[in-house]
Design brief:
about 325 residues, alpha/beta, eight-stranded mixed beta sheet, globular
Length: about 325
Amino acid sequence: MHDFLAVTPASSPAVTAVLPQPNFVQLHHEDQHAVRPELVAGLLAPQAFTSPKYLYDALGSRLFEAITELPEYYPTRTEAGIFKTHATAMAALQPANATLVDLGAGNCAKAASLFAAFAPACYVAVDISVEFLRQALGSLQAQHPRLPMLGVGMDFSSSLQLPPQAGNGPNVLFYPGSSIGNFTPAQALTFLRQARSACIGGGLLVGVDLLKPREVLEPAYDDALGVTSAFNRNLLPHLNQLVGSDFKLADWQHVALFNAAESRVEMHLQAARNVQVRWPGGERQFTEGERIHTESSYKWRAADFEQLLQTAGFARTQAWTDERGWFAVFWAAG
């Protein structure tokens, strides 16, 4: 699936190593003709909204990396602690010679930290941010030259269908970081059913952020340094690029709040004043205080998420949590 080290013939005066390169399949192409109507419809909805996937352009992906280092953002370090403590037990439940399929791979660091314990036969990194993924996977391949690697530029938020190059399994799908929380419960069920079909004799390892007090949740999405604000507001220049709109950063503020009735943290962009936003063929007047809903992050009770996995068709599940019960990693056998 990739090129291993190659050398010049023995008779040559010098031996030159060729660095291995991961294969790459790009299934996601940002088609402005298709994207633009979707975004415009969201901007014109009574409650304006955009899909959270548009937060992750190249700069957005880097800003999210910075968020994971913040003291307020507990999910990354809490999940990392669970993996450090229980990686051997997790590995024991997985089939031998499995392909590790990293969904929303980002910088690939979380999956790479598990290579020693899991000993995958192949690593497949999937992400919508194509150029960011290329750079991350290229660097990782140099560190692990004998592990076959495949990058897949793909938007799996609506359909999870891996390309043939990903192989025939067994597959261990890896979905860390509580990204499952970006789906509504109904969407999460659909995704989990698709994940079960893609497991091919393996299973799913998924990180889930658990319900906890508001005073812990809200700062995680509204840090004192303002990195999450920059991440959210970076959506605006991305919208300008995709839609041709004239959003101005100075007109918008970051808002994060816990919606207890829906068991989710919401991120919004709030108009700081009355704002007229225009794009080719359309416009909208936003009044001061009006919001664009940019992301939801649902928080689960462990028993409820276990029931969701079973409803999706997974027969056997196991969960590991941190000492405070703030986060869980579930293994679900396909």
